Amino acid sequence: MFAQITPTPTWYLLLAAVLFATGAVGVLVRRNPLVMFMCIELMLNAVNLSFVAMAKALGDIGGQTTVFFVLVVAAAEVVVGLGIIVSILRKRPNANADDLAELKG
Amino acid sequence: MIAADPTFIAPSIDWSALTPLLVLLGGGLVLLVGAALTPPWPKRAYAWSTVAIGIAALVMTFIEWHRISRSGPKFLIGGALSFDAFSMFATITICVGVILTSLITEDYLRREGMDGPEVYGLYLMAAIGGVVMAMANDFIVLFLGLETLSIALYVLAASHRKRIESQESGLKYFVLGGFSSAFFLYGIALIYGGTGSTNFTKIIASFDSVAAHRKDALILVGIGLLLVGLGFKVSAAPFHFWSPDVYEGAPTPVTAFLASVGKAAAFAAMLRVLVVALPNWKDDWQPVIWTIAVVSLAVGAISAVVQTNVKRMLAYSSINHAGFILLGVEAAGHAGGSTGRGMPAAMLYLLLYSVLTIGSFGVVTLVSRTGDGATDLNSFRGLARQKPAIALAFTVFLLAQAGVPLTSGFIAKFGVVQAGVEQRSYALAIIAMVTAVVSAFLYLRIMVSVWLEDPAAGDTGREPVTVPFSAAVAITLCVGFTLLVGFFPGWLIDASDKVVQIAGR
Known about the structure:
The structure holds 2 protein chains of 2 kinds. By secondary structure, chain A is mostly helical. Chain A has helices at about 10-30, 35-60, 60-90. In chain A, helix 2 (about 35-60) packs antiparallel against helix 3. The two termini of chain B are about 30 Å apart. The interface between A and B is large, with 47 and 43 residues.
């Protein structure tokens, strides 16, 4: 009986929503800058998944091409983000988000 | 399903309409590549070539502005960009921001021993992102502009390699900026799913079809996520918690850039999204904007009062200003964008506030002294005795930010409050005026430190404040503009009235 179930775009949208929520919670809960950064990537890729699912449901190529733009943006963010994280970790080895508390008020 | 179309017809491109963008892009690339291939340039050369690029872009923008008033707005590159008075006005604000910020950055970089072309190149790249955001007629173009701006700003915020505060602010801005970009993008995806397009023109057209109404929930959630993303970018409360930290930690000229160009571009994008792309859903987004405006006004004014660091005070005051601009956005929603004073008032506010905030942070840059650390209120004590001209300029900026008549700040605040009252948002207008009084206390507190307190009480043995040439030029220009617009606002109000001309209306 399982063979008859075919996944619809809605399934992918739900999966994307779960992935997005996982990423969002991860950014808020985890304290390691690198892990927070990975969670942001997870959120962006969840959006990519929903773009593709929407494009499939709408029969429109636009959503699929969008994914390439988002991938490029995510790659650019990786470059900048890792640069900033590395330069901080050089000054403060083993720093996590709670240790970085020079700015308060 | 997805039809394979063998022929691809490239859209025609009106290159002359893109000249402001091309000048900024070409200038930025020439600056970066040229500086990388040649020995270090003489002092001031990097900054003044950036100023020259900015002025060239500004001149091109004025030419295009006149072309639009003659032949009307239109779409560019197959409907991806919108070439209209709104985008040109935003471009003017951004170019003015780049020029003035480059001037206050010039001496700062040499003082901190990090002179080089990189910061200026990043200013120009960020400006391109901002202009693209203002011109966008498609959500994907808007997102690309937003990321071009944001990624440049992350690097700029972290650019002071010797200060751990700068690095920390860069990281915070990066994590929270990426977080909010993801929300923004998810909103785009849901709106794409609900309306079948990311193009603003097609989104408006889809409203009349039955299919879109069946997917209303999708669109509403999408609008909600978009508002979260945009709220972050304009640093409106309750999405503001990154901005005081980032404003305090970033190098002071970069803070000026963030508060002027960053904010202007984000608000231009917000107006584009809400008023141009989603006017049909205004009954849904308007209450949200109303709430965000009230919270921003209150949080900005009240939190600023308890701060002791001037950069943080100005950061909270910028949240309060964001509330005022949201008052204009809310009014533009009532009017549907086609009539009413909301949109011109918000755009005028952005231009006037950009100049004011660059002037204010320009003074803070001078007072912060080598190391960029002396930004607490004590460092400003006795500034009037040490450098009366700078103290006077700072007073003009603070009075203008408080909205005192005969300064540009009054014209800005008057415009948005008038727009709100015209659309019967009396409650919002009254709250705005009350918070203006509360934040006036903050500005007075800084002025008391500058004029009345004794320098010996706070900082004996500190290095004296020096006023280098480029910064003096920038601050003089800002004061001149502030007072000129304060005394003769008519021409600028008339010019800003034209921003209601949007392509496709």
